[in-house]
Design brief:
The chain has 180 residues and is of the alpha+beta class. The N and C termini lie far apart (45 Å). It has four helices and eleven strands, in the order αβββββαβββββααβ. The chain is globular, with a radius of gyration of 17 Å. The protein has one domain: Protein Transport Mog1p, Chain A (3-Layer(aba) Sandwich), CATH 3.40.1000.10.
């Protein structure tokens, strides 16, 4: 019988126990939306979590970067309500904004992606029972798919943690694949 390297044994045991396993920065995890018709690749440095709400399809914790003490949160969901309405709602969740929110529109894989960047004190909706986050940042994206509707992606949390993960968030958006 062939023996597995010791690291593989520990990784297998950790996986079975539900513990995170260190991986290389190049490894990615697929996130499937719209019943598998929309795919994005996220870094394995982000920790998959059970969604806090039924409307959230996928959720990840973004490990805090010093001096932050609180993890960031990344959520994915398909929804309706219109692009402008949702962007305005996202911007309205921030008070004491340290700069004007940035809103950009890009084409990725033939789809329109609306990118939003807001900095200030995050005020979550009251029904979430989350506390406000001072010195927070949100990177959001609304992907307009032609066949599968709007897909909402929202990364928010303490500012340093979100800044440290901005490149990975943008890389994830560039990995967008939409089935024909």
């Amino acid at each position: 019988m062939k023996r597995l390297p010791i690291f593989c044994c520990f990784a297998l045991a950790a996986t079975i126990a539900g513990l995170p396993v260190a991986t290389s920065a190049a490894e990615k995890t697929d996130v499937l939306l719209a019943k598998g018709k929309v795919t994005l690749k996220v870094t394995d440095k982000w920790v998959r979590k059970k969604p806090k709400s039924r409307i959230i399809e996928h959720e990840f914790a973004i490990p805090a970067i010093k001096p932050d003490r609180q993890d960031g949160r990344l959520t994915f969901m398909g929804a309706s309500g219109g692009v402008k309405t949702n962007i305005d709602r996202w911007k309205g969740q921030f008070r004491n904004q340290s700069r004007k929110p940035k809103v950009e529109k890009h084409k990725v894989s033939g789809q329109t992606v609306h990118f939003v960047d807001v900095v200030g004190t995050y005020s979550p909706p009251p029904f979430t029972r989350q506390k406000p986050i001072p010195k927070a940042r949100m990177l959001g994206a609304i992907v307009e798919t032609k066949k599968y509707g709007l897909q909402f992606i929202k990364l928010y949390g303490p500012e340093a943690t979100i800044k440290a993960n901005e490149a990975a968030f943008k890389s994830m958006l560039k990995s967008l694949v939409v089935a024909k």
